[in-house]
Design a protein that fits this description.
Elements lengths: L1 E2 L6 E2 L19 H14 L14 E3 L6 E3 L18 H17 L3 H10 L14 E4 L6 E5 L1 H9 L4 H11 L7 E4 L2 E3 L3
Antiparallel strand pairs: 1-2, 3-4, 5-6, 7-8
């Protein structure tokens, strides 16, 4: 038994956290008082302390969405104390997507959505398929627009070279492989 120096109640030894610096090896405050003391100190510094929510066994609370979900909706993480990721699968995917846009293109998801809206929701090149993929200049890293998968892949296959794209357009239009009539009966083959 030990007496808490804050609330003055006499409680069992398990109600106190360990502290090797103390003579008896236990904190001066009971766990409840220590939690309240910590909360008051943090609030005095202008910080917010998360309220501890009771969670049933086999479940975990996501700090982003605040929902309590079963372990089946979490990724494994061997380095964490409980063996599960910090965020649920849905929130983790959302955070990873946001970080991807910021890291690769320097834009947020809201900025990408604004670009899509400004384009009318369709691909800038084909104007048929929905715009879903961010297109950027590989040399400067500057974002050019949002394209459909096929158009974005085509630009990548052409290695962003305008001369190759012009030849491809001429080829598709039939200007490169159609012979041209020079005089009556005389055709010039494309070179």
């Amino acid at each position: 038994m030990k007496r808490c120096s804050r609330c003055k109640r006499v409680q069992i030894r398990e109600a106190f956290a360990s502290n090797r610096a103390m003579r008896d090896g236990l904190q001066a405050y009971c766990r409840e008082c220590q939690a309240e003391h910590y909360k008051q100190k943090q609030e005095a510094k202008g910080r917010m302390v998360r309220v501890k929510v009771p969670v049933p066994s086999g479940h975990k609370r996501c700090p982003q969405c605040g929902e309590i979900r079963p372990h089946s909706q979490w990724e494994r993480n061997k380095t964490s104390s409980d063996g599960w990721a910090s965020y649920c699968r849905d929130c983790r995917a959302q955070r990873n997507r946001a970080l991807y846009f910021k890291r690769h293109y320097g834009i947020t998801e809201d900025e990408r959505d604004a670009m899509i809206e400004a384009q009318g929701g369709s691909c800038l090149l084909c104007r048929i398929a929905p715009a879903e993929h961010v297109d950027h200049d590989h040399q400067t890293g500057k974002v050019r627009g949002v394209l459909c998968f096929s158009c974005n892949a085509a630009l990548g296959q052409f290695k962003d070279r305008p001369d190759v794209m012009r030849r491809a357009a001429a080829y598709v239009e039939g200007n490169l492989w159609n012979p041209t009539l020079v005089a009556q009966g005389v055709y010039r083959q494309p070179s």
